[in-house]
Design brief:
By secondary structure, the chain is α+β, with helices and mostly antiparallel strands. About 40% of the residues lie in helices and about 30% in strands. It folds into two domains: about 180 residues, Aminopeptidase; about 170 residues, 3-Layer(aba) Sandwich (Aminopeptidase). The chain is globular.
Length: about 375
């Protein structure tokens, strides 16, 4: 693995030393992150995608005897007058066995990021590792990290295990969902790859869905760049659903390693009437299986099955695909400047309760 080694970033472990270096080798980075269970958000191409949107990218790799044993891609953005923010989306990436034990690569990775961040005036490192190992929370807390007030990535997701033949996967669907998948096909819903020309309509559907359900959404420019990136990098698909010749829904997936994720999905009124979301997700999970993925991740669901929960309707829909709940460690902060961090948290609360008062300070704070 090609690196720019900094021998100051190391930690002794049982007589051996774990070094941390900056990785400059795309193939080696993606090879380790994919094999260790990392998602698209820790892939090399995701970092370059975010770099084009104004973020800086720091890729740290932990080396045990020269072999990679951990990695953390950190996105960096400066927001005046607050300072800079470090964010490791669904990182760091450690093998499952490491999270279940002492997570030895974690401490040197955090130490390296901490030294770089403090030297550059960063406020905090925010991370949300993609691990369902229960011991991970204890490990993060033992490293002095603080549980975040809000989660950036969904802490609980609904995943479909793609470990069976297509007819078995269909049989695993809840009876009503199985009927709606077949009904959409009988009614003439057609799912096919979309093009850049369809992104503006998809973006309007996403915006309307966000308004209807009270979720934050991305704008057309972001979705256009994301669709272009995943298609160009073979890292997902932009799928559209058509009914009677008109586009009535769309789905943007992100695929890396063993996991394919449903990143954005939306439909119009007609699409909801003809159940295009059932057709889209069924189509996407089958394509993920054919690509060799082991799981299809429908992303966030609620912490309970309470239909009154804000996530209730979405939870019900996703559970109908024969999913299992996958609970991750959540969002954690490694605080570099405690006083400024406390002020930032107060401003965040003010934004939630008095959005206009805090908007000048926080409208560009990255999440």
């Amino acid at each position: 693995m090609m690196t720019e080694r900094d021998t100051h970033y190391n930690q002794r472990r049982a007589g051996a030393r774990i070094d941390v270096a900056i990785c400059t080798d795309r193939a080696a980075w993606n090879g380790f992150v994919g094999a260790a269970g990392g998602s698209l958000l820790q892939s090399w191409q995701w970092g370059e995608f975010r770099r084009r949107q104004g973020w800086r990218v720091l890729r740290l790799v932990a080396l045990d005897g020269g072999d990679p044993c951990g990695a953390m891609q950190v996105l960096v953005r400066t927001v005046r007058p607050v300072g800079s923010f470090f964010y490791a989306a669904e990182g760091p990436v450690l093998p499952t066995a490491a999270w279940a034990t002492d997570a030895a690569p974690l401490a040197p990775l955090l130490t390296a990021a901490r030294r770089i961040g403090r030297a550059g005036g960063a406020l905090t490192l925010r991370l949300d590792p993609l691990t369902s190992e229960p011991h991970a929370r204890e490990v993060l807390r033992a490293q002095g990290l603080r549980r975040g007030d809000e989660d950036v990535q969904p802490p609980i997701t609904a995943v479909v295990d793609l470990d069976a033949a297509e007819d078995v996967l269909l049989a695993r669907l809840e009876k009503g969902a199985r009927y709606l998948v077949r009904r959409a096909q009988r009614d003439g819903v057609v799912v096919r790859p979309g093009t850049g020309a369809q992104v503006p309509l998809f973006a309007r559907m996403v915006a309307e869905t966000g308004r209807r359900k009270g979720f934050g959404v991305r704008d057309e420019g972001y979705l256009h760049q994301l669709a272009d990136m995943v298609q160009r990098e073979d890292s997902g698909e932009f799928l559209i659903a058509e009914f009677e010749g008109a586009m009535v829904g769309g789905l943007l997936t992100g695929t890396f390693g063993a996991r394919s994720m449903a990143l954005y999905a939306a439909s119009d009124d007609m699409g909801r009437k003809v159940n295009v979301q059932y057709a889209l997700h069924w189509h996407a999970l089958l394509r993920a299986k054919r690509w060799g993925c082991r799981v299809y991740d429908l992303r966030g669901i609620g912490a309970s099955d309470d239909p009154a929960d804000h996530w209730g309707g979405m939870t019900f829909f996703k559970q109908r695909f024969g999913t299992r709940r996958e609970e991750h460690a959540g969002t954690w902060d490694d605080i570099y400047r405690p006083v400024a961090y406390r002020g930032f948290r107060l401003a965040q609360r003010a934004r939630r309760t008095r959005p206009l008062r805090a908007s000048r300070l926080l409208r560009r704070v990255p999440t």
